[in-house]
Amino acid sequence: xxxxxxxxxxxxxxxxxxxxxxxxxxxxxxxxxxxxxxxxxxxxxxxxxxxxxxxxxxxxxxxxxxxxxxxxxxxxxxxxxxxxxxxxxxxxxxxxxxxxxxxxxxxxxxxxxxxxxxxxxxxxxxxxxxxxxxxxxxxxxxxxxxxxxxxxxxxxxxxxxxxxxxxxxxxxxxxxxxxxxxxxxxxxxxxxxxxxxxxxxxxxxxxxxxxxxxxxxxxxxxxxxxxxxxxxxxxxxxxxxxxxxxxxxxxxxxxxxxxxxxxxxxxxxxxxxxxxxxxxxxxxxxxxxxxxxxxxxxxxxxxxxxxxxxxxxxxxxxxxxxxxxxxxxxxxxxxxxxxxxxxxxxxxxxxxxxxxxxxxxxxxxxxxxxxxxxxxxxxxxxxxxxxxxxxxxxxxxxxxxxxxxxxxxxx
Length: 411
Hints:
The structure is a single chain. This protein has one helix and 33 strands. With 411 residues, the protein is mostly beta strands. It has a single domain (3-406), classed as TolB, C-terminal domain (Neuraminidase), CATH 2.120.10. Strands 1, 30, 31, 32 and 33 form a five-stranded antiparallel sheet that branches. The model is unreliable at 1-26, 192-196 and 406-411 (pLDDT under 50).
């Protein structure tokens, strides 16, 4: 999602017609309604949950917030801090083992928000990307067990089309930036179309990194390539990239979300475009020996209640079903992304033999229930949580819950 789309979404939100406190027809529960006077506006990207069940997120206006169970079946909202380098977050926050939060924003900052020991929280800048070879469009970051941060920059690098980076803490203070791999276009790239939201990385148990690149690759269907799935292998500090799949448009294009890896090492992800309707797909990359094989599990249609343009990553339950959200679709005319109507959906994909069946868990309408949902997270009971960038009582965003009992049957 580019900045212009984020700004357009805010403008659109202000123009939405809201019928009082009308709720969506299903039983989705709004846990918190944002207002300009409390907690900022425009929660974006999704939430992270700690071991106690508290959830943390960030807003377009730079607020870092916490949602805590109140013991009576409800939730308490707390604004932890506000910081300039936290504005326009590009994805969900990540938390380390001592409770520090890390994230990235559209303007090139990687930031940390830490408990200060006195009940408050203190923000600080981990790294400020300044353009040129170090780029200016970082993804949200991930952490390894040693406290190093990893991400993808959609710009910069030796070829100017992006690179994979590591940020490592320096003894005595500060962080050092290392380019692990510079894309050259044939093996992936960010490109201006991806600036603002860049797919984050994941790391396996051996310390290898996996990700997607929005553009690049060998397909000529897209003007700058349709993007790739890649792996970076770490051999004693030397990183080597392998392209696992080149998107071709027909089977997806322009991936913009992190991958998910199951216990068998299979990878799952989404693309924002491509497929028969050109509004995105869900795909799987599996390995036959060492040979990767990619197939489409589901192609979105953007018609009826079905979603379109999935921007968020997927999660998986214990039965192997996949859950995710889309930025558009859902049947509502209250929102649109480009020429595609709808405020987004939450969906489930269930395996049926070699095929997968989609169910719509919720179609967002921005009439009290939110819209443009972020990445889902789940608790031990199977309840799903995220934020909606627009909608709610003040029409500037919500935190919501979907329980297993609220899922409506889709196709």
